[in-house]
Structure formats: C-alpha cells, structure tokens
Amino acid sequence: MVPVINGKVYHFGPRGLYNGLLLLGDDETHSWWDHMTGECLHGPSKGVKMEVYPIRHTTVEEALGKWPDIRIALSRPNIRMRWLSRVMNWMHRKEILPPGFTKTMQAPDERLPRMTSGLGIIEGGEQCFYPLEVLRRCGGTVWDTVGGAEIRITLDASGIYPDAIYTEEKETGKGTDRPLQLYTRWYGFSYTYPRCKIYGQQK
To answer: InterPro entries per the record (predicted)?
Structure first.
C-alpha cells in the first residue's frame, strides 16, 4: 500500500483485529483501515482507498542470488520483541492463531482448512486462491486465467513462496508485470474476498 491520501503522507500503526486480521489506524484522522485491501473502514476517511501494489515474498538466499550487491537491513528489537518474535514464529510453524484472534472471527469458509497457506490473486474483478500444497503437487508451476488475464504462478527454489506474473504483456498503469497478489492464510483471503475461487475447485 502507498500511504499517501490526497497528496499527504499518512502514518499508520496497528489498532486492532477483525476476523483475525490486522486493522491499521492512521495518526492524522484516527481512521481504521483494512491492511489487505487498503480501504478505510471506519472514521473520517471511510471509503477512501490507498493504492495497492503486489509485493513479492522471498528468502535472503534467493535475493542474494539475483542481486549479489543487495543491501540487507537488520533491525535490533528489544528483548521483549525478540521473545515475542520467537513465540510468534513458533505459533506460525505450528499453524496456531495467537490468543484472542479467534474471538474476532466469523464462521469460517470451510472449503479449505483455515490455516492453509497460499497465494491469492485479485484481477479483473475476480479473486482466486492457490493453496501452496496444490502448487507443489503441480510441480511448482501452474497457468490459469483470472479476470480475463493469463497468469503463471511459480514457486521459488525453496518451495515456500509463490509468485504470479502475466504471461502476456499487459498495460497495468503501475509499471508492473505482476497482478495484485497476496501470500496469506486461507482464512484471511476468504474473509476479505468471500466469493473467491479456489484453484482446482472453480470448475
């Protein structure tokens, strides 16, 4: 997301949870924003939407392989944050939601287990979710059509992070050859896009 509203840079931080998803708040108007869509849900800026761009997840090893001279920034969190990070990383590996998350959640979309990881693509008014395990069973690469656009989804060398690109040149107006995509859990994508398709189940 680009934190520029009406030509002014806004400053955001975590404010709460809804459906197990983070809600951002801005310091300028004290409005609350959806961190996946960039849309303001409550407050003086309600209805305003930030520009959203696709962000690719990767590993340090892959990044160094592609850009040997890349600079890598490492933060220096305090002891409390280091401890909390270890706990959160453990819960992530065990596919456990932190305490309190489930209390904010509605009835789940049971087409997939809620903690299923995958890539969600938003294109041409359609949304489709690609479970990580399905991508692996397909050899790490699949071709599909979403919102009328031909798209290729490929797993990286680690087999963890998927990435989608247009297979034909497409004018997006944003200088990118990649559709809007989110690497996320099923519960987050299905709550945000409740009528989304699932690759392999939509036909």
So the answer is: DUF3179 (IPR021516)
